[in-house]
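Hi Y.,

Following your request, here is the sequence exactly as I used it, all 475 residues.
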Amino acid sequence: MKNKAITPRDEDFAKWYSDVVRAAHLADYSNVKGFMVIEPNGYAIWEMMQSILDAEFKRLGHQNVYMPVLIPESLLNKEAELIEGFAPEGAWVTRAGGKELEERMMFRPTSETLFSDYYASHLQSYRDLPLLYNQWANVIRWEKETKPFLRTREFLWQEGHTLHETEEEARKETLQMLDVYKKFFEEVLAIPVLTGRKTEKEKFAGAEETYTVESLMYNGFSLQSGTSHFFGQKFAKAYDIKFVNRENKLDYPWQTSWGVTTRMIGAVIMVHGDDNGLVLPPRLAPRQVVVVPIGKDEEVNAKANEVLAALKAAGIRAFADFSEKSPGFKFAEHEVNGIPVRIEIGKRDLDQGLITLARRDTREKINVPAGSDIVTEVNALMEQIQKNMFEVAKKRNAEKTYECTTLSEIEKIMSNNPGYVRACWCGDPACELKMKEIRGTKSRCIDETYKVKAGDKCVVCGKPAKYKVVWGVQY
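Below is the corresponding structure, written out as tokens. Let me know if you'd prefer a different format.
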């Protein structure tokens, strides 16, 4: 039975998304316009994302730090390209303590300036390098249109900022962190992604090169889900970051930055959710299994407690629902919250020596012997669910990826059944802007695995192509 609180996904995708966010108690709107309240269910998902990524960052040698939330305007102005890129979204503090400030300060939209200023006064020798820092923080960007998790005026993220002795080391870091994100999306979030380099027009303000993680939502729209930037020595020179190199001469370090945000929660909703609510991959789910006893029979409750104890002892994130709610209400509630596995234990089934496992992804129910090794059964089922969710999304991506050679083909696709469009491009920003006229279509990344052949033409102007690009309608 469909959840009546949720608009059908194929009827109105935007309304469906908002309904799922609210029905699953992930976030709610705030009286502070454009800001969201992240509710316990949503924050628990963010905490899982944090813990998994943070462990990987630390395994690779990164350390966590924290920078101020405000940036003086004079500090921002040292890197003109950065301030120009973020000026339209800037939120400024001009008055504090009842007085006008001598210098206005921007709430951080990103922290390159703060890290660079810090590095300038702390880096001395090549022996200090590399500096591998990461920050878990909030940022403020004054977005015109907002939607929970996807685009809000305040969001949570991590931003890595590293300094290296050589260009080679910095480039290696940039691609290494891109690969960390790709593995996290595919192996934990069960979301297949594209990775590649952004065009000059779409790269991060102040970066020499930006690499992106792109994911495709159920409705065929693209979501930039993470980025990794190679800054070269641009910020080092702007902020006078120098060190004594191995030849005992002053030199500039090479810099990178990389980050993902609470937008990842939006991606999980839009890739995996259905008309009954949230669907969470087991490796991400804060609560992987719910045990639901049916009725008040003592034997049933005893079995539920036995199963729960076994699961928790094995490290499975399980809980039991002994509330007074009806079984149907409990089932619907745990489905909308995306719990990957539900274990139903009732008197009738127990009398037959059975308990029931229900999987959230397919809603299939499986009877297993009540005396079976429940830990083995559940672990095997969670691996099946994790794999199936990835394969379903991967198949959908393949079905929504197109090869096009004309604008009319692209316009038809983006108007009726959007997805990724792979098409050649001459490299001219004017052609990139022309593409945007088709439902806001933008370049997602350059397909650097494709070698442009003689005769390949730009899909917009017909001139010789320089790149094969993946295009998409973006959130």
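The mean pLDDT is 96.

Thanks again,
Q.
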